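Fold this sequence, please.
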Amino acid sequence: MSLPELLESELDGEPSVAQVQLGGEDVLVVTPSQTVVYRAEGLLSDESVETYPHDAEQLTVSVGRRKAKLSLDYGLDGTRTLAFPAKHVEKVLHPILAGVISAAGITEAGETVHKTFRFSDLTLIVTSNRVIKHIGSAVWDTDFEEYEYSGLTDVDFEEGSVATSVVLTHNGRQNRFKTPNSDARAVREAIVEAVCEFHDVNSIEELRQAMSEQDSGDDEPVDRLDFGDGPDPLSAEPGELESTPENSTQPETITREDLAASLAATESQTTDSSTANAQPQRGSEPTAEGESATAGTADAFEGSPFESAGPVDEEDLSAQIAALTETVDQQQQQLDRQTELIETLIDELRRGR
């Protein structure tokens, strides 16, 4: 089909990838970089050409009873709106959307856009290399998700009473989105055909089998018990474990055995002191004023480095024992907590976390 001279001049030799007849002699031409709309001469208007570059940040569509409007948002450069008959909305949207995602660098050279679907706030674009999903009031903007077929290992469809869930297993994760049952068959055929062609298989079952065999071939025996040198305990630096700052204080660990030995020593000291106080010293006689009968006891420590412990207060002894017991219990709880953390760490290392 030959194009009007004014339209050919506007294209400037750029190849046409799609053409849509808008009624009468009006025609929409899509090139890799722009969309050009030709309006033929009418009773109230002259022949004209309008261009819409594809480097838009957002694309929206509104459809009325007779007219549809497609708006391209260029950010700081403003928005441009294209009006056309509503019955041509699918034919117009598909090639323009393909040009926009190509200009955004999402699709690669030689990649073909097979199908585009619009379900309320969900837009699906099925290409020869990927499925692109966009959710929002706009048909397209920079907030989108894509699932490349190279990382796709399974495709499944779960039918419901109203909608069908499309399940794409991509890079080990399942991604779900719903399509109306009335369009589920078209979506299924488009995705399955594109995926099978990319992986050179005849069905999704063959794809699953091929991926299963590939995973089995890639598996290598791993010694799960070999942790190598292992991590430093409690994430400490090596220098922290080898040396301790001079002014630092570290809690002294008291075991139950140490506590028993301390109690035994205390009881022995108490018994010795009581015996010493109970037995009078032979040869001691009352002396002059100010001297007491305990002078003999004091003389027993003369010439030794020890001093008399004096009478032992049983209440103080009980308090000391209670304090030691509480300290041991606290340290035992800390040891139990550290043991639990170490066991958790070993378990996570074994699971490869």
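Residues 1-105 form a domain with the PH-domain like fold (CATH 2.30.29). The radius of gyration is 44 Å.
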